[in-house]
Design brief:
The chain is mainly alpha-helical and 50 residues long. It is 62% helix and 0% strand. Keywords: Membrane, Transmembrane, Transmembrane helix.
Length: 50
């Protein structure tokens, strides 16, 4: 077995990571997604300061 990853291995790992990310976001409820986007934009979430 080689000591390094081939290009095909790296592409496969990247594709699996992207698929997992898409599956996670796809199943995320709209309210949680909106709150996450607020946090990502550094505005604080909908529940922050309540």
């Amino acid at each position: 077995m080689p000591d390094h990853l081939s290009l095909l291995d790296l592409i496969s790992i990247a594709a699996a990571a992207v698929e997992l990310l898409i599956a996670t976001v796809w199943r995320m409820p709209a309210a949680v997604m909106a709150d996450w986007l607020d946090l990502a934009a550094w505005r604080g979430g909908a529940t922050v300061g309540v």
